[in-house]
Write a structure and sequence with these properties.
This protein is α/β, with parallel strands linked by helices and 354 residues long. It is built from 8 helices and 16 strands. The strands form 4 sheets. It has a 6-stranded mixed sheet. Strand 6 and strand 7 (84-88) form a beta hairpin. The protein is flat, with a radius of gyration of 22 Å. It starts with 5 loop residues before the first strand and ends with a helix.
Length: 354
């Protein structure tokens, strides 16, 4: 059995919570999509872990989508071999059913709670939720400040980079890896994810599960938009790609690229993440950054690191208060009922879709 990968579909970013959850639900191939509703602490993540464990025991490859605000918690799973997905259907990653009954199904864990007990904690719940929102907003503001500082560093590197080396690398890949694949009328699909996350405990990444199965090219130095441009060349040959974006620039900076059908991977190596592939390509140019620019880069990093530390503290505070919020629900839940439903659901999936 091929092991599934671990990654993120949502991220804490300078733009706030940024979602690529729409790439979980490819309705052209998806056979069943379960959207789980329920309050914090109602067992949504545990429900998905139970289902995933059963699927793996049955030899089915399952992808795990982690929560960027609590890496130990799951936001979704995707059972690849039978094309069945589950997701936490509550804020901030809400996915509304598109084809209710036909493909989509809602699982409401609210039927397992004592609403009377929860209602008696109304004021505490509202107050705690407000604190959580404030912590997240402050963290996002801090990330916005870091983004502005990092923009200056980006400009320095961009002035000193070699477009020639970047283009030469793309040409080499086209010649060495894509030569037997001609241009086609069909354009390959691009799926967009996150391989890393800014979490309460610092920077996390799941590169080992994403890149290990592939032949990997590691790019050092300033790569700019190389992987974006390379993805275009690959898709023009009718080949699908998976793109993993940077949480600090979730719309435009692709940091990792995989081509599952060709067993190929590409990754950028920097201070935040590194994966050494079979081929390491250095795109930097010696002596192109003067002492003044080096001073600016060092200062920018120093200030960014200080603000990152404050960001982690705010995310940590949000997590602590979320744990408190969960306790208001935990004491009101019938978790045996939740567990039984997860087992029944897994059994039904195996009977219908395997």
């Amino acid at each position: 059995m091929q092991k599934g990968k671990h990654f993120y579909l949502g991220a804490n970013t300078p733009e706030g919570f940024f979602s690529y959850y729409n790439y979980l639900t490819d309705y052209s191939t998806l056979r069943r999509f379960y959207c789980i509703k329920g309050g914090p602490g109602s067992g949504k993540s545990t429900f998905m872990k139970n289902v995933a464990s059963i699927m793996e025991k049955e030899g089915l490859t399952t992808d795990y989508i982690h929560c960027s605000s609590d890496d130990s918690s799951l936001d979704a799973i995707y059972i690849k071999d039978i094309k069945v997905a589950f997701t936490d259907g509550t804020a901030p990653h809400i996915l509304d059913p598109k084809y209710p009954g036909a493909i989509d199904e809602i699982i409401n864990l609210g039927v397992f709670w004592d609403s009377g007990k929860i209602a008696r904690k109304k004021h505490e719940i509202v107050h705690t939720q407000d604190i959580i929102s404030q912590c997240f907003q402050r963290a996002y503001d801090y990330l916005g400040a870091i983004k502005s500082i990092r923009n200056d560093t980006e400009k320095i590197y961009k002035r000193s980079c070699s477009r020639y080396l970047q283009n030469a690398f793309i040409d080499d890949i086209i010649f060495e890896e894509l030569a037997e694949f001609p241009l086609t009328d069909y354009i390959g699909k691009k799926k967009k994810y996150f391989a890393s996350a800014i979490t309460p405990t610092g920077f996390m990444n799941r590169l080992d599960t994403i890149l290990s199965p592939y032949k990997v090219y590691t790019l050092t130095g300033y790569a700019d938009d190389v992987l974006i441009r390379l993805s275009d060349f690959i898709c023009e040959r009718g080949i699908d790609v998976e793109m993993y974006f940077c949480p600090m620039n979730p719309r435009h900076k692709c940091e990792h690229l995989t081509v599952p059908d060709l067993k190929l991977g590409f990754t950028l190596s920097n201070d935040f993440h590194s994966f050494k592939g079979e081929d390491v390509i250095d795109l930097s140019i010696d002596n192109q950054i003067d002492d003044k620019d080096i001073s600016h880069i060092e200062f920018n990093k120093k200030i960014s690191d200080i603000i990152f530390d404050e960001t982690f503290r705010e995310l940590g505070s949000a997590k602590e208060n979320h744990d408190i919020l969960e306790q208001f629900y935990v004491g009101s839940m019938d978790f045996e009922g939740v567990k039984d439903l997860s087992l029944i659901t897994a059994k039904e999936i195996l009977e219908k879709y395997r």
